[in-house]
């Protein structure tokens, strides 16, 4: 059996692939505290709406050779879903611009988060 000298020349504790034997000490670079405000840079998230309805509508179009008269039920379902989505989005935007907090809302705008941070400031 032929052994490679390169594998055995480096000590095992300095190898990059070897697991660390002792815990890595924590180095605090910045103080661990919340800021008083949140910026609005990350609020531009685009989400897809009514994907189920549009896929059913396109399947019906393909099945009936793109005849709209055969797929009126699917078209009205898609239009109703999009109308509900746009109304919901408009009310969320309106409440977000005013900073109105809605109980149970999962996605908050930066203005709503800033209002919460004003109501409950971080402790020093």
Automatic annotation (TrEMBL):
Example of a GO biological process term: mitochondrial translation
Single GO MF descriptor: RNA binding
InterPro entries in the record: Cys_alpha_HP_mot_SF (IPR009069), Ribosomal_mS37_met (IPR033620)
GO cellular component: mitochondrial ribosome; nucleoplasm
PANTHER family, per database record: CHCHD1, SMALL RIBOSOMAL SUBUNIT PROTEIN MS37
Protein name (Swiss-Prot/TrEMBL): Coiled-coil-helix-coiled-coil-helix domain-containing protein 1
Organism for this UniProt entry: Papilio xuthus
């Amino acid at each position: 059996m032929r052994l490679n000298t390169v594998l055995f020349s480096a000590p095992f504790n300095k190898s990059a692939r070897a697991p660390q034997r002792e815990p890595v000490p924590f180095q605090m670079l910045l103080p661990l505290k919340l800021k008083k405000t949140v910026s609005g840079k990350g609020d531009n998230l685009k989400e897809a709406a009514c994907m189920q309805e549009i896929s059913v509508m396109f399947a019906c179009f393909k099945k009936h050779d793109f005849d709209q008269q055969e797929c009126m039920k699917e078209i009205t379902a898609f239009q109703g879903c999009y109308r509900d989505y746009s109304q919901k989005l408009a009310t969320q935007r309106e409440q977000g611009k005013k900073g109105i907090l809605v109980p149970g809302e999962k996605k908050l705008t930066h203005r709503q988060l800033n209002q919460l941070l004003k109501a409950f400031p971080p402790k020093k």
